[in-house]
Amino acid sequence: MTVVLWVPLGVSVAIVGVSAGVHSWLVLLARKGTSGTEYMQIALAPLSVAAYVSTYVGGISGLLLASATGSPILRFLAGGLGGGLLTLNALSHVARLRERRRNRKLDRVISQDEMLELIRSQTIKGFCKQKDGVVRFTYVDYWQNGEYIRRPSNADGAGYPAYVAAADDVRRQHGHTVSYRNESDPHDPLTPGGRWITVEEATALLQANEIKTFAYTGSGGFAHTTFKGTPTGIRLLDHGWVRHIHVNPAMEATMIPIARDAQRRHGRPQFWMNGRYEQTPPDAGHSPGEARHST
Description:
By secondary structure, the chain is an alpha/beta fold. It contains eight helices and 14 strands. It folds into three domains: 2-106; 109-182, 2-Layer Sandwich (Signal recognition particle alu RNA binding heterodimer, srp9/1); 193-290, no CATH class. It has helices spanning 2-31, 37-43, 45-68, 72-106, 112-120, 160-174, 199-207, 252-266, and strands spanning 109-110, 124-129, 135-139, 143-144, 147-148, 154-155, 179-182, 193-196, 213-216, 227-228, 234-238, 243-247, 270-273, 276-277. A seven-stranded mixed β-sheet has the order 10-8-11-12-9-13-14, with helices on one face. Strand 13 (270-273) and strand 14 form a beta hairpin. Helix 1 packs antiparallel against helix 2, helix 1 runs antiparallel to helix 3 and helix 7 runs parallel beside helix 8 (252-266). It is elongated. The chain starts with a helix and ends in an 18-residue tail after the last strand.
């Protein structure tokens, strides 16, 4: 009987020891800034599960062995190992309980002031107002010292217009782009979508560095977009945080020189023609090493 109990106890101690050692090693690598440790933790998840189960099996086996053996030394050894494994099991339950409480705090909806502070500190990558009225947002970086940091990602939906205004201010003043969209209102004036614009409006947007892409010769990715207003030969695709222009062949002679002048001044718009991006000229605000290609 005692021999049968020693086997699961020994195996359980070995599994728990290996799991603890591997986890400690990954933590040290993460603190040193080694990349890829998060993926290694995911790959070793089965080892963590096996260690958790082993605290049950080994703990019970150790206590049964301590009560069955006649040797005081073996009784002390088996009882100590079994009690230690059950203690680890209890501590894991406490940690899980704390994690659940922490998750409830992370699921909270942050206030408008908190959200505005995150946008102005350039911590936010983008946000979206969902159909349920809640604004869900993403961070620029979720990792710190190789560890994934969980933080709240829901904000008060009533502050969406203020969030958009703050995002636009950050983009204009600091060059940090925060994307946004409103899924609860497809006709949101803050993200108007596609419309026809005049030469004067297109010129003003180009000179103000508000246009990311200038397209001609082809659809420029606008083929499936509906444009409002009277056709003028100049299409504007306006997402609020980013804008693109596409001109018809009849307007190319008028608009291309204006767009080139804006490109020399600001480094954009980037030209799109014949289904691909043009290499950005070095004198358009980018060094040759920053030139971009795309097909």
